Amino acid sequence: MSAEIITVPAHVHGYPGIAFGGYVAGLLADRSEAKTVRVDFRGVVPVETPVRIAQSPDGGAELTSHTGDGATALALASPSDSAIDVPDAPSWTEALAATEARLRVPQEGFSDCFGCGIAVAPGRGLRLFPGRVPGRDLVAAAWTPDLSLGGADGQLPPEAVWSALDCPGGVAALLLGTAKPGLVTVALTATTPRPVVAGEPYVSYAWLVAESGRKHTVGIALSTPEGELCAVAEALWLDPRAG
């Protein structure tokens, strides 16, 4: 099993000081052998702190702490055979209108979030701003990833694609369900059938699947404006404990 030490950059966070979940999941998925991967978050992954990432015997990968006498599991990726039902994508026009409507509302939360922070400069974050789609049980965003997010071939790396599957799910849980502010991603399952290319337009959308107490299951997809799926995910979000 190959292993390496990585450090998540300081600006790649959701909550302050905590590595962005989708980014961490993408790093693990990139080192997994399956087409569909489930990532379970077991602990807090801090930014600017060395952590160990290693492949596992089942074709997945594990992220563990790199300090102290013993390793602590922080996130685990494993192959998945989950089938994710995906509704028809909204149009580019609908997604753009949803984003524009969202930006007209005063934003609560973290304006410097790597995924959906409105104050983040292009290239320093994704700048995904999902809003409700009128007449449909969806949130959506029109998104053109900044050219700096692409690699030498123009394609976004897995950690950027998986990052784009994170915040929209939380927004869906908040706007379409009963989720409370402060919720966190505890599991993310995804497959990426088509490359995502920097500078090209995409429709990001998400929907509520189920809720039970503090748990909120959501679906997320990223498609071309013509509706061709590039990435599909299902996520489990958890409300903070009361009090």
Structure description:
- With 243 residues, this protein is α+β, with helices and mostly antiparallel strands.
- The chain has two domains: 77 residues, Roll (Thiol Ester Dehydrase, Chain A), CATH 3.10.129; 147 residues, Thiol Ester Dehydrase, Chain A.
- It has four helices and eleven strands.
- An eleven-stranded antiparallel β-sheet has the order 1-3-4-5-2-8-11-10-9-7-6.
- Strand 9 and strand 10 form a beta hairpin.
- The radius of gyration is 17 Å and the shape is globular.
- This is Thioesterase family protein.
- It comes from Streptomyces beijiangensis.
Topology, element by element:
Elements: E1 3-6, H1 21-30, E2 36-41, E3 51-55, E4 61-65, E5 73-79, H2 92-103, E6 131-132, E7 139-143, H3 158-163, H4 167-176, E8 184-191, E9 202-212, E10 215-223, E11 229-238
Short description:
It contains four helices and eleven strands; from the N terminus they run βαββββαββααββββ.
Features:
2 domains; HotDog_dom_sf; Thiol Ester Dehydrase, Chain A; 4 helices; Thioesterase family protein; 11 strands; 16% helix; globular; 11-stranded antiparallel β-sheet; 243 residues; alpha+beta
Sketch the major β-sheet.
Answer: 11 strands, antiparallel
DSSP helix fraction: 10-25%
**Terminal Cα span:** 43 Å
**What's the CATH superfamily of the largest domain, by name?**
Hotdog Thioesterase
Number of discrete domains: 2
Mean pLDDT: 95
Spatial order of strands in the largest sheet: 1-3-4-5-2-8-11-10-9-7-6
Structural class given helices, strands, pairing?
alpha+beta
Number of strands: 11
Q: What is the CATH domain class of the largest domain?
A: Alpha Beta
Instruction: Note the overall shape.
Output: globular
The CATH topology of the largest domain is Thiol Ester Dehydrase, Chain A
Q: What is the helix tally? A: 4
Our Rg estimate from Cα atoms comes to: 17 Å
**Spans with pLDDT under 50 lasting ≥5 residues?**
none
CATH architecture of the largest domain: Roll
> In sequence order, what are the helices and strands, one letter per element?
EHEEEEHEEHHEEEE
Protein name: Thioesterase family protein
Organism: Streptomyces beijiangensis
InterPro entries: HotDog_dom_sf
